[in-house]
Amino acid sequence: MGFPDNFLWGGATAANQIEGAYLEEGKGLSTADMMTAGSPTLKRAITSVIESDRYYPTHEAIDHYHRFEEDIALFAEMGFKCYRFSIAWSRIFPQGDETEPNAKGLAFYDRLIDLCLENDIEPLVTISHFENPMGLQKYGSWENRKVVDFYLRYAETLFEHFKGRVRYWLTFNEINVMSTMPWNAGGIASSDEAVKMTAAYHQFIASALAVKAGHEIDLDNKIGTMYAGHFSYPNSCDPDDIQGNEDFMHKMLFYPDVQCRGYYPNYKLKELERQHITLPVLPADAEILKAGVVDFVSFSYYMTHVCGKNTTGILRGLNGLETGYKNPHIERSAWGWGIDPKGLRYALNYLYDRYQLPVMVVENGLGAADTVVDGKIHDDYRIDYLRQHISEMRKAIDLDGVPVMGYTSWGPIDLISASTGEMSKRYGFIYVDVDDEGNGTKQRIKKDSFAWYKQVIATNGEDLDWKE
């Protein structure tokens, strides 16, 4: 009993949140590169040109591009079995629509992937993680079917170039974020539902074509969906609350439904009909979706929600996380995110029961304000958070029989927050000396959680206790 011998322990990052070097060696601008942040309110803004008097967190981030050898060495020291990272599309195709890739961009990821393999770390690559090339804006980004072809060329380039070195892939990060943050998900600036649903449809087609191509290029490839883990409890046993909660979950779950089943669920088709939204379907699309179903389900898990008959929109509020209800039975982080370890077991069962595919937790962590005292960071709160979540994951395996492939905690090293642009919202086992304005030495410092996670991996999840 317990975690399988081949369980993939590790951590997860995104290129735009750690790499920096935003125009180095031929890289083009991405949608993430246009997002600003500044203290004290850290209001995000999207601009069409880089403005010299504004701070763009992704431009330098934590300078992983120049320090990846040091960072991978620290991951190896913790004993990582797997490292989930993303490849920046605009490093490979700077404008997104070129016919030939940028050789220097591929060379960077060659070095990164080879270093992982030298340290027995399995790469798990996210093909598109919240950073679309700005060059695609002239087409209307994912609202235009042409972008499907550009994405497929990009994905096939990766499959061919890294064949035999990368076996695990995710087509899109948190694909359902198209409904909540369309600029992040697909470079879509519009809030119009028809535009978002058109963009989502094109991403489904692109993902399905990529899955088919990835399997044809290398039979060993395993390609998954990545769901932004929105899981909700009904506010009460009132039948109207039950239906309100179901309605909310449908808005989120139709994304993995399409990718795992290969067709649009009836509930979504009826909703689109009521909204007078017509999808841009071409004659062969039904076969494309059916032939391109994913091999496994991955998801992020940070919190659960409460919904009911009076749910306000999909998700509103500071970080897009409010539904109009609160759960009085759980605590909240300093950023207002509900802390619900038991919900992870529920989520794992929910997804496996729904799709009958292997599942993987590819993001989970606590964003907190760490304090350096005498060169050390005592983050027992993070250890406690992760310990409780890993315990519930083990119950899903031991007690429920859920086939969980692995666990990659979010932000094994401090990085730029995607929701706020902050550095002070820290997730890592490794502290990085950078503040919310980008100032600092970028020095890496191991937190207490570094030694704890090393112990967890070394014992394959058997020893979760913290020993100073």
From TrEMBL:
BP-aspect Gene Ontology terms: carbohydrate catabolic process
Q: Which Pfam families match?
A: Glyco_hydro_1
Question: Which of UniProt's keywords are assigned here?
Answer: Glycosidase, Hydrolase
Q: Which GO terms describe its molecular function?
A: beta-glucosidase activity
Q: Which domain of life is it from?
A: Bacteria
Q: Which GO terms describe its cellular component?
A: cytosol
Identify the InterPro entries for this entry: GH, GH_1_N_CS, Glyco_hydro_1
What family is it from? Belongs to the glycosyl hydrolase 1 family.
Which PANTHER family does the record associate with it?
6-PHOSPHO-BETA-GLUCOSIDASE ASCB-RELATED, GLYCOSYL HYDROLASE
Q: What is this protein called?
A: 6-phospho-beta-glucosidase
| Lineage, broadest ranks | Bacteria, Bacillati, Bacillota, Bacilli, Lactobacillales
